[in-house]
Please model this.
Amino acid sequence: MTMAKSRDAVKELVPTELITTSDSESDSEGESNADKNDIKDISKSSYHSIISPWLGCLVWPLLLTVPLVLTCSSHSYDKVFPKSWYEYNSEERPKVLGLFLGIFTVAVGQIFVLIFFYLYKHGYLGPIPKSIQAKGARQYEWSEGVATHFAQPEGFVLLVLYLSITWMLNWMPASYYSFNGFIQWPETFFCLVLQDGIQYAMHRLEHVVSFEFYEFSHKPHHRFTNPRLFDAFNGSMADTIIMILVPLFATAHIVRTCNVWSYMAFGSLYANWLTLIHSEYVLPWDGVFRFLGMGTPGDHHVHHKFFKFNFGHLFMWFDQLGGSYRSPKEFSRRAFHENV
Model:
C-alpha cells in the first residue's frame, strides 16, 4: 500500500503538460509508422511497375526456345536426332523433322505468349494494365478466347497446311532444309521486314481494289473494331491467303539463304508478334517499339478503329513512307487512353 500511495503521489506531482506531450509523441510514432507503411506500399507498387516490363520482355527470347536450345552448342541437334532424320538430299523427299520442328517452334512460342498475357492481363506481373481504347476492353472468358484462337480454320489450320505442302513438295529454296549452323540473325530480320513490306502492300490493296473484293476478303476481320489478342487470325480464308501466305512464299524465294533454324526463328517471331499486336492492352515494351517504328497494339488498334491508316503490322516504316501512319497518342485522344 505504501508503494501504491507513492506512485499516486508522484502522478499528482507530474504536470499535465508532460502527460499530454507523452500522448502526442505516441500519436506521432503511430503516424510515423503509418507513413512508413505507405512508403512500403509505394515502393512495392514502384517495384511492380519496374519489374513488369523486364519480366514481360522475357517472352521474346522464349519465342525462340526450340532453335536456341537445339543450337546452343555446335550441332547439339545431332545428339538428339539420328543423322538420317535431318540430312537433306535434293533428289529425295524432304525429311519431316524440319517441318515438325518449325511447327513445334511456333506452338511453343504461342504457349509462352498466352502464359505471359494471362499473367499480365490479370495483374500478376504488376498493376493491371489499362485497355488501349478509352471505352475499355471487351469482356470474355479466357477459355473461350483460347478455343476461338486455335480453332479458326483460316488461322493456324491454314498456316500448318501451307507449311506442310511447301515443305514436303520441296517448294522451298534448298538452304531452308539445311540444319548446318545457327540462327542467322541478318536473314531472320530481313525476312521479317520483307514479309511485313509485302503484307503491307497486299493489305492496302485489299482496302482499295474494290468494295466487293474488300467485303469478300478482309471485312470479316474488320468486324473487330476493338480487337482482343485472340482475334489475330480470325477473318477469312481469302484474307489469310492474300495477306499472309502469298507474302510468306514470296519472302522465302527472295531471301534464299536461310537455314532451317532461321526459318523457325522467323516463323515464330512473325506468328507470335502478329498475335501480340492484337492485344487489347498496352504492352510493357510498347514505348521502345513505337520509338523504333516497330508495330504495337496501339498502332494496330488505330487500323481496326478507323480502317484507312496503319496497314503495316510488324513495322510502321512502310506506313510512314506511304503517308498512312497515325500515332494513337496523337491521332484521336477520345478513342484511346492517354497511356497508350
Notes: Residues 1-31, 38-42 have pLDDT under 50 and may be disordered. The chain is about 60% helix and 0% strand. The chain has one domain: 58-322.
